[in-house]
């Protein structure tokens, strides 16, 4: 196992923030390759997707998981506020869960929540999103080239299908699909929100419209992640 030195203190009993928390000492941890799966009450399960630089660590025989990835994989919203006099000079991390009974059945993780149950409609929607990912990735890499130093990543969980319209007559295989996407960089840092409309037909996939809605928010980037911004 590869050893790493990590600056900072540990956050929580089994969780560690997605970026280093500054303290007066250093700790020595070991990369601990792990597969983390969330098992839900309805029998469905979801594996936590870890990117480069988001390794699970072992310290004192305890596993530490990047906090943002863990929280968002479990359906929570995470908001980071940089240390300031208003926060007692401490970095502030808010993890917010929305009550399940307040969510519509097909709410997607683009809004910070997982669907409450699986369905044929949801399966087909997810397959559609997966097929569009390479096209979205290409467009968003172009759009954010002057904003961030690395190409943003799109995960299916961060894409929400807003509408599907059949352009031709009944059973005509020509569709307009509009999606909201939330690209991320580094340790799952959101860099914005965008709306894309594609035309899908036998001729292929064509981007019809694009709208950048917001982002990035500099406050979402810890000091040691500022290099991701241009």
Question: How would you describe the overall organization of this protein?
Answer:
The protein has 230 residues and is mainly beta. It is built from two helices and 15 strands. It has helices spanning 67-73, 120-143, and strands spanning 3-7, 15-16, 26-31, 37-39, 45-47, 57-59, 62-66, 76-81, 92-97, 159-166, 174-181, 184-185, 189-190, 193-201, 204-214. A hairpin with a 5-residue loop joins strand 4 (37-39) and strand 5. The chain starts with a strand and ends in a 16-residue tail after the last strand. Mean pLDDT is 76; it is low at 1-24 and 99-113.
- Strand content bin: 25-35%
Strand adjacency order, main sheet: 1-3-6-7-2
| Shape estimate | globular
Taking the sheet with the most strands, its summary is:
5 strands, mixed
């Amino acid at each position: 196992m590869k050893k790493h030195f990590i600056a900072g203190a540990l956050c929580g009993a089994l969780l560690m923030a997605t970026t280093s928390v500054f303290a007066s000492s250093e700790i020595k941890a070991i990369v601990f390759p792990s597969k983390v799966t969330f098992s839900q009450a309805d029998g469905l399960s979801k594996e936590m997707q870890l990117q480069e630089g988001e390794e699970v660590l072992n310290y004192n025989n305890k596993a530490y998981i990047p906090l943002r990835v863990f929280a968002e994989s479990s359906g929570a919203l995470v908001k980071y506020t940089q240390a300031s006099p208003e926060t007692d000079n401490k970095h502030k991390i808010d993890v917010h869960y929305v009550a399940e009974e307040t969510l519509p059945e097909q709410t997607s993780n683009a809004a910070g929540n997982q669907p409450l149950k699986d369905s044929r409609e949801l399966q087909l929607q997810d397959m559609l999103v997966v097929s569009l990912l390479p096209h979205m990735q290409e467009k968003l890499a172009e759009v954010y080239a002057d904003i961030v130093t690395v190409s943003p990543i799109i995960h299916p969980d961060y894409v929400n299908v807003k509408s599907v319209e059949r352009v031709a007559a009944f059973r005509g295989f020509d569709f307009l699909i509009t999606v909201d996407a939330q690209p991320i960089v580094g340790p799952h840092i959101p860099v914005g929100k965008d709306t894309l409309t594609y035309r899908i037909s036998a001729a292929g996939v064509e981007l019809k419209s694009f709208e950048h809605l917001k982002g990035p928010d500099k406050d979402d980037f810890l000091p040691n992640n500022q290099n991701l911004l241009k």
